[in-house]
Q: What sequence folds into this?
């Protein structure tokens, strides 16, 4: 009986990575059939290294990770499986491997994105949606706009007017200037500012990757964000499983979030950061529409 909880936790980690393992094996067999054996081999080496590091951290509780004992092996394997799948998929896309500079910038964007989402959802859970959404959007807009202008961007007069109108639209639609019955705690406001700064980091980072990097920045981003979120869930002992409608919404939001990152990456390559970031800041409108339906 004493082994049941630890065995269950171990199996949960293995099951987390099972879909990735099966898809990786399928791609590996396909790669072998066309005499393309080196990419899966190198990806396997990277996965082995990640697995070793995660095993040490999750078994013994190193680097601030939870000490899970033998059960940590299952979670290390599950997380590493998704990292390996992401890397192999990127290789099959056909884009050349980008420079280390692009990968580092994209990985930093992944760290910022995961921390930003965690902070944003935590602040939204407080119930102060009409305060959190516009603050996050405003901070996430102002920082990239200032960065772009300092970096030499010069939008036209119409673009400047559009920036002002877009920001005012977010404030008005979210009713941020309205009268609120309850006062929002300072900690929630600071969390919203932090989330906005993290989102701004993604916008700036993707604007500075090479156009020749293809979709690799998205792979680097997810390779960092998924393990971070998984480790946070483990550290807080939150349940991984969702049921019913929550599962469907979680899957849908994940797909849309990945698609949004991809569309932004393309937009940032063809447009000015100061303009693209402002248009992206209109996301609180959709958030409130979904919240009221």
A:
């Amino acid at each position: 009986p004493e082994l049941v909880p630890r065995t269950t936790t171990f199996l949960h980690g293995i099951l987390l990575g099972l879909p990735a393992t099966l898809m990786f094996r399928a791609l590996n067999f396909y790669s072998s059939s066309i005499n393309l054996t080196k990419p899966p081999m190198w990806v396997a080496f990277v996965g082995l290294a990640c697995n070793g590091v995660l095993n040490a951290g999750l078994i013994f509780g190193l680097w601030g990770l939870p000490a899970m004992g033998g059960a940590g092996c299952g979670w290390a394997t599950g997380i590493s499986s998704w990292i390996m799948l992401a890397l192999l998929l990127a290789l099959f896309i056909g884009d050349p491997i980008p420079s280390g500079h692009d990968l580092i910038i994209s990985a930093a964007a992944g760290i910022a994105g995961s921390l930003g989402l965690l902070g944003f959802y935590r602040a939204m859970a407080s119930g102060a949606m009409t305060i959190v959404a516009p603050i996050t959007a405003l901070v996430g807009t102002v920082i990239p706009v200032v960065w772009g202008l300092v970096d030499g961007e010069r939008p036209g007069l119409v673009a400047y007017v559009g920036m002002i109108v877009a920001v005012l639209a977010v404030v008005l639609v979210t009713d941020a200037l309205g009268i609120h019955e309850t006062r929002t705690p300072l900690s929630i406001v600071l969390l919203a500012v932090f989330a906005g700064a993290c989102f701004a980091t993604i916008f700036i980072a993707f604007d500075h990757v090479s156009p020749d990097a293809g979709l690799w920045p998205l792979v680097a981003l997810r390779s960092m964000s998924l393990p971070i979120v998984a480790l946070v869930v483990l550290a807080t002992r939150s349940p991984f499983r969702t049921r019913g409608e929550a599962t469907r919404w979680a899957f849908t939001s994940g797909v849309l979030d990945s698609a949004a990152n991809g569309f932004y990456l393309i937009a940032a390559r063809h447009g000015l950061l100061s303009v693209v970031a402002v248009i992206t800041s209109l996301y609180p409108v959709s958030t409130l529409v979904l919240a009221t339906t």
Notes: The mean pLDDT is 80. The radius of gyration is 21 Å. The CA atoms of residues 155 and 275 lie 8 Å apart. The first helix runs from residue 3 to 33.
